[in-house]
Amino acid sequence: MSRLVLFILLVFVYLCNSQYPPSPFGKPQDICPTGNNQPYKVDNFVGTPFILTPFTNVFTNPTILNASTKTCRPDGHCMFAYTIDIYDTTLRPFDQAVAECTKKGGTKFLTYNGLIPGPTLRVAAGHESIVRFNNKINKLFPQSFSPCNGSRRGRPISVHHHGSASIPPYDGWAEDETCYLETKEYVYPNNRPATNWYHDHALHITADNAYLGLAGLHLVTSKLQYGGCGEPWNLEDIEEKHLILQDKVLDANCQLFIDPEKARNISLYGDINLVSGIPFPRMPLEPKWYRFRILNAAVSRPWLLKIFNSKYEDISKTYCKIIASDGGYRITPIPFPDTGLLVGVAERYEFVCDFTTFANQILYLWNDKNNDWMQGVPYFCYSHLLSKLEIAPTTSDSPPQFNENMPMPIPERTITRVLNMSDYDTALQMANKGKFHRQMVFSQSNNKWMINGETWDSFKIAAADVGQNTWELWYFQTGGGWFHPVHVHLVDFYMIKREGSGGIRSFESMAAKDVLYLGASNKIYVLARFGPHKGDYMFHCHNLIHEDNDMMRAYRIIDSQNGINAGSAQPFILNGFAKIVYSNWLYADPMLNLTAAQPTVNMPTFNSAYKQKMLDMNIYRIFYPRNETDIPLNGFTNPWRSTWCPA
Ligand SMILES: *[C@@H]1O[C@H](CO)[C@@H](O)[C@H](O)[C@H]1NC(C)=O
Ligand SMILES: *[C@@H]1O[C@H](CO)[C@@H](O)[C@H](O)[C@H]1NC(C)=O
Ligand SMILES: *[C@@H]1O[C@H](CO)[C@@H](O)[C@H](O)[C@H]1NC(C)=O
Ligand SMILES: *[C@@H]1O[C@H](CO)[C@@H](O)[C@H](O)[C@H]1NC(C)=O
Ligand SMILES: *[C@@H]1O[C@H](CO)[C@@H](O)[C@H](O)[C@H]1NC(C)=O
Ligand SMILES: *[C@@H]1O[C@H](CO)[C@@H](O)[C@H](O)[C@H]1NC(C)=O
Ligand SMILES: [Cu+2]
Q1: Which is the closest atom of ligand 6 to the Cα of 626?
Q2: Residue limits of the Plastocyanin-like domain (predicted)?
Q3: What is the pLDDT of residue 456?
């Protein structure tokens, strides 16, 4: 070994051990880059061949994209309009953290409006949004994929608004794709406040499209200042930080590297942690309360979050509270767990922290994940570092205080209106007896990922007779070795019971979820009220490599009124909700031609008359009835009706 290499090695042993909090796992010198710009590997996963310097960039929230227009009804319910161009471009987010990248020509990305992550859409709960996505990808990623390989051209995209109860044609069905020079318009209900996000969902290339940049936040907010009906717990003026967690790996040209393990259809992990597109950022904060919205938008990696002080003591369990999950606010906040907040791919959590007593201190947003109960997740040199929180000496005079004793002004927890405690208890009793309505087994065979032994490509629907507005208990299971973050589209659900991994975790319990962390050998009972929309929806593993290699299937919501499933093995659980008539059959088909992508030049002009027409169609009238007779209720109360305030 040359003296120079030895010197550099020693420098890096020093850096790993002292300048930054050391990894508590393994020997850092074994897994840090050697500094000779050679690739290195951890558990067979390839790392970036360059020296990384954490905490050089300053954190900022992703850019907010303001609506271009607002169109309102006389009763104050509005529709906000947006246009987003999807195109490929070169950006330089790594120059500071990866000095070698300054010598290269920039990193190629797929972007929404030229940004990674995509701009944040922020819509007040109770108001719709209409978004036109224009596919303009043609320079850096010119490859064609079916169905854009004939008269239609280019790299297909499909947009899923994750967390939204969208009707099927607007849900980002994997085969409902938009080709180059085409546009697809999506209409979203935003019927309850939550940290939603939007990301690509194109068939078999979702992992690449999302990894290369196609993901962003779509916040549905209750803040009065943005037209919501008011936040609970004095959150209105507590500063928000929007943290999108991702990991990337670079090749020798500073391009996003598609790891060979990905080519083996297993997983994709990186050694560069991005927080909202910024590698290992510093975050200047004040000694006051903050609200953190967390989204795991990685391809495969789960994170186990804690906040450490500079002595590596966990302060989060004392100073932070979890206030929301995938589907929005919890009923009551809970303490940050001692064992850390586990955030699997696609999960969202919100927590608040009181940094009032931390003036002048350094804190770390820390990934405490190790290799326990997971298959081959590589723990690179800096995998434990996410962000360095630099608390200033002082703050403005009287910053707002989180107050969990203040009531929730508007009951916006939709899930508690459609699944009450008696539903929950009934489901729990069933689970305790080992009973369920449907079973979904996640497994692997010959590098194909399957659900109940079938893949997406087998064109068999996994559950073809789910009754509109009825509830079902689904039993998810997987064998040893692999873990799967499972996403069921359309619904917010409750995780009722987990066998394995110590049961349901505090932050999963009684929380509205749309992703369940199916740990290795786990068996999980999930209670969902299906509906209110009819039609076909996907459910899948959200490890995007597993999803693309076909751990994805469909379920179909049918009319529960007319006994279509009389011969089904799963009789509907009929109750008053089944009497609510919401006939949206036209929109049951996710491939509906009426709403499919078309050449951009053929799109109707996006003017005020057009937007008024789309608002007047009121496709989400289940949430936004114009009057009491808009939806035939047959004497029942419409639990889906959303509250809105003038925006
Ligand atoms: C969006 O609107 C807000 C006011 O609500 C304004 O402060 C901000 O500058 C606008 N952003 C852009 C990019 O125009
Ligand atoms: C497009 O690709 C699909 C799938 O590979 C293939 O079946 C089809 O024939 C291709 N179409 C054209 C026009 O090349
Ligand atoms: C990965 O999946 C693709 C598509 O499903 C398949 O063509 C390929 O053979 C798989 N690779 C391996 C190594 O199994
Ligand atoms: C709970 O909701 C069900 C409908 O799923 C309804 O039949 C029942 O009366 C409700 N129970 C309570 C206690 O509100
Ligand atoms: C679908 O719509 C396109 C126009 O967007 C039209 O050319 C095509 O004929 C339609 N297909 C069907 C099956 O209706
Ligand atoms: C209720 O709204 C529907 C849809 O706009 C309309 O057709 C109907 O006339 C309204 N009924 C009343 C009583 O206003
Ligand atoms: Cu999986």
Answers
A1: 2
A2: 439-557
A3: 93
Distance from the first to the final alpha carbon of the chain: 67
Residue 127: per-residue pLDDT:
97
Give the domain ranges of the chain: 237-391, 420-576
Ligand approaching nearest to the C-alpha of 546: 7
pLDDT value, residue 410: 67
Q: From atom 14 of ligand 6, which residue's Cα is the shortest distance away?
A: 627
Q: Residue 579: its pLDDT value, please? A: 82
Q: What is the homologous superfamily of the domain 420-576 according to CATH?
A: Cupredoxins -  blue copper proteins (2.60.40.420)
* Helix ranges restricted to H, 492-637: 544-548, 608-617
Q: How much distance in Å is there from the Cα of 617 to the middle of ligand 6? A: 13
What is the C-alpha separation between 155 and 141, in angstroms, rounded?
7
Q: SS3 of 364, please?
A: strand
DSSP 490: S
Which atom of ligand 1 is closest in space to residue 66's alpha carbon?
Answer: 1
Ligand 4 lined by 420 (C-beta under 6 Å): yes
CB burial class (10 A; 0-12, 13-18, 19+) of residue 305? Answer: buried
66 lines ligand 1 (CB under 6 A): yes
The alpha carbon of 225 and the centre of ligand 1 are apart by a number of angstroms equal to 13
Say if pTM beats, i.e. exceeds, 0.85. Answer: yes
Residues 114, 89: Cα–Cα separation, whole Å: 7
Tokens 């509907």 belong to which residue? Answer: 572
Cα–Cα distance for residue pair 332/17, rounded to 1 Å: 40
Ligand 3 close to Cβ of residue 422 (< 6 A)? no
Q: What is the mean pLDDT of each run of 10 residues along the chain (647 residues)?
A: 40 41 44 63 85 93 97 97 98 96 97 98 97 97 94 97 98 98 98 97 96 98 95 96 97 87 80 97 98 98 94 94 97 96 98 98 90 69 92 92 85 83 94 94 89 90 89 91 94 97 96 96 95 94 94 92 53 72 92 97 98 97 92 90 91
Say which residue the tokens 């309009």 belong to. Answer: 81
Cβ atoms of 486 and 518 within 8 Å: the answer is yes
State residue 129's pLDDT score. 98
Q: Which residue, chain included where needed, has tokens 């500073």?
A: 254
* Alpha helices by DSSP H, 500-647: 544-548, 608-617
With CA atoms as reference, report the closest residue to 115 among 62, 189, 45. Answer: 62
Distances (CA, A) of 315 to 125, 310, 344, 358, 364: 33, 10, 22, 10, 10
Name the residue with the closest Cα to ligand 5, atom 4. Answer: 598
Is the separation of the CB atoms in 327 and 163 below 8 Å?
Answer: yes
DSSP state of 26: S
Report the topology of domain 237-391. Answer: Immunoglobulin-like (2.60.40)
Among protein residues, the one whose CA lies closest to atom 8 of ligand 4: 422
Please tell me the residue having the least CA distance from ligand 4 atom 1: 420
What whole-number distance in Å separates Cα of residue 137 and Cα of residue 647?
35
Q: Do domains 237-391 and 420-576 have the same CATH topology?
A: yes
- Is the minimum distance from the CB of 68 to ligand 1 under 6 angstroms? no
- Give the closest ligand to the alpha carbon of residue 113: 1
Q: Is the CB of 36 under 6 A from ligand 1?
A: no
